[in-house]
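Branched-chain amino acid ABC transporter permease: structure tokens wanted.
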Amino acid sequence: MGLSGLVNPYTITALDGVAYGLLLFVIAAGLTLIFGVAGVFSMAHGTLYLAGAYIAWQLADGGWVGLGLALAAAVLIGAVGGAGLAAAVRPLTDRPLDQVLATLGVAYIAADGFSTVFGAEPRSVDPPRALAGSVSLGGYQYPVYRLGFIAVAALIVVLLIWLVERSRVGAVVRAVVADPGMAAATGLRTRTTRAAVLVGGGVLAVTAGVLGAPVIGPAPGVDTTILVYSLIVCVVGGLGSIRGALLAALGVGQILTLGVALVPGAAAFVLAAAMLVALTVRHRPSLAGRPA
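Answer:
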């Protein structure tokens, strides 16, 4: 059986689900680490994605230089945003409800600012011209950029898992999560580690906005949608778990694409049910794939 026998409209939709799921993972990975390490409930994470999408709309001009500038700006703005979040929530340590309200206020202010500056109309972002075409998969046309995005996102997955599970930085992070008091007693700077995770999470979210803008473009309300799906990924995957977030993101991606195509009315129910089960079963965060 050739490729044409294996590929059908549902296969293409499932491939879309992989792209969507990996995009959600890149966003949610930062959010799950922010909670798992820093203990911060950030409702402004979707705002960072939207900021990255608007950066891409402004700077990405269809060439590699424009994309490079957008990515550089994403790293800078994500770092500043993460550092600002760390400073804002520092007085609210161990006060999760106050953290939620404070970051939710930031998200609302930012959303109003985006609408004022960029307008209320949805914006489309073109991929680099070299990746703007489509390729035939078993007789079906599929965007080259989405295939490229899947490859880049897969690389990010590998790097994140290595960073958390195999590197010295990851060992420090795991130590801070396991026992902050003992980590501090051994000379580890727990406060600096938490702030660094917030910065890293911000960079991931804004970078995801730049890379994902041709897939989910900037528009009012996108920040809320991204935040909700990211929270579902974090809850279902286990707060603080990178591997869990990956599996959950891929699952959510399939529900939002293939699930909608097969059973349109049941997709939202399946997401809600999965989150309810996860909330019932899980009772503590985990890191680097350890079961909750």
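The longest strand covers residues 134-137. Residues 2-281 form one domain.

Cheers.
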